[in-house]
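ok trying again, last paste got cut off:
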Amino acid sequence: MQYPSKTIEEAVNEIAKLPGIGKKTALRLALHLLKQDEKVAFTLSEAITQLKTNTRYCKKCFNISDADICSICSSMRRDKSVICVVEDTRDVIAIENTAQYNGLYFVLGGVISPINGIGPSELKMEQLFSKFPGEDIKEVVLALSPTIDGDTTAFYISKKIKEYGVKISTISRGIAIGSELEYTDEITLGRSIARRVSYFEE
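nice, full thing came through this time. structure:
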């Protein structure tokens, strides 16, 4: 692809590094920003800088947070006896949007994937297991995407925490096998959370 200037080419190359954005879309975005008032570009640049410098992870659940303890973990209205284990922050957002869950979360930071060289030690497994039996946890909801890697991760976690006598449930299989949790519509995801079933009864 030919560019009218080196500056445009560099901008396109950087924008195209974002997931789901190809060179044509990146060029369209670059040209759009070029047409805007300088304030728009500077505001966007500042927001991205703040994203990297000010965002932190909750010390309890590892969800993205503005403080050391996120608003969910610090809320007095949440049921602290239930923990929903998810892959990443996008899944927390998806479940929260259903308004069907009132417990806490734990963000693993990924799933076990041998083919990609990701084992339990690359995830927040030890931090999760350290909550047992230290905290009064009665139920663990395994809300992982119904993929091979997601199921492998759920099986691994269930085996590790079964000895603590907590109820282990998983989201209902209303979500299609092989699909990603973040792309599931809110109604289906909400029903899956509300109608979760015991992990060991499947």
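cool. The chain has two domains: 6-54, 67-201. Strands lie at 56-57, 64-65, 79-86, 103-107, 139-142, 167-170, 197-198.
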